[in-house]
Amino acid sequence: MELALLYSGGKDSSLAAVLLDRFYDVRCVTGSFGLTDDWEHAARAADALGFPFDRVDLDPDVATEAAATMVADGYPRNGIQRVHEHALETIADRDVDAIADGTRRDDRVPTVSRAQAQSLEDRHGVDYLSPLSGFGRHAVDRLVEATFEVEQGPSEEVPKADYEDELRTLIADTHGVEAIEEVFPAHDQTYVRGRND
Questions:
Q1: Burial of residue 39, with CB atoms counted within 10 A of its CB: 0-12 exposed, 13-18 middle, 19 or more buried
Q2: Which of 37, 32, 38, 48 has the alpha carbon at shortest distance from 161?
Q3: Which of 133, 143, 127 lies closest to 192, judged by CA?
Q4: 62-87 core/surface letters (b: 16 or more CB in 10 A; e: else)
Q5: What are phi and psi of 174, to 5 degrees?
Q6: Which helix (H) or strand (E) holds 70?
Q7: Which residues pair with 114 in a beta bridge?
Q8: Smallest Cα–Cα separation from 44: which of 160, 145, 196?
Q9: CA 149, 154, 156, 162: dihedral to nearest 10 degrees?
């Protein structure tokens, strides 16, 4: 069975890929607005883990809408949520049996409600899977430590292909660099370099 996994090259989506690999033919898929080439980091991470990779084009109007929402709100939650939902809709249109993401039980954003999951499944004829939805951050961290070589650091310094990088670029271009600090709290990112031997 073919599964398209929204993939950033980070620890959560990498762990989701490994967990799903026993049951599905997993293809790591990164959505991109074409604003940066950060998707290449995800391609390298997928290759290091032995998974096929695809980049899919996302609608630039969604990025513009999300960035405007984030600047107006002063925080990223609603904009990131909008982009994640759009990315799931985009990969659900592919010729796959299932779609998945790396959302965890305690994620504040993005999240997928039961109603959203059922709607995706009904409208696109796919299964939606969230293999980490029963795992908290500490459990994920322990599994990741036992499974992967990981680079971790400030989000501006660690390569990763999530929506945040492209939205940061768009916000800087349209609202100035100072707007990035007003919207995004400082936090660490992870990037998976490969499996532990």
A1: buried
A2: 38
A3: 143
A4: bbeebbebbbeeebbeebbbbbbbbb
A5: -100, -25
A6: helix 60-73
A7: none
A8: 160
A9: 50
Q: Using CB atoms within 10 A of its CB, is residue 10 exposed (0-12), middle (13-18) or buried (19+)? A: buried
Q: Which CATH superfamily is domain 2-195 in?
A: HUPs (3.40.50.620)
What pLDDT is stored for residue 151 in this prediction?
Answer: 86
Domain boundaries, the chain: 2-195
User: Tokens standing for 40?
Assistant: 């290449």
What is the model's pTM? 0.92
| pLDDT digit string, tens, across residues 124-154 | 999 999 999 999 999 999 999 999 998 887 7
Tokens of 38: 């950060």
What pLDDT band is residue 155 in, cutting at 50, 70 and 90?
low
Token pair for residue 95? Answer: 């010729």
d(CA 28, CA 10): 12
Distance CA 26, CA 29 (A): 9
What does the block give as tokens for 167?
Answer: 């939205």
Angle ∠(60,41,103) on CA atoms, nearest 5? 70
Other CB atoms within 10 A of residue 23 CB:
12
Both structure tokens of 24: 């599905």
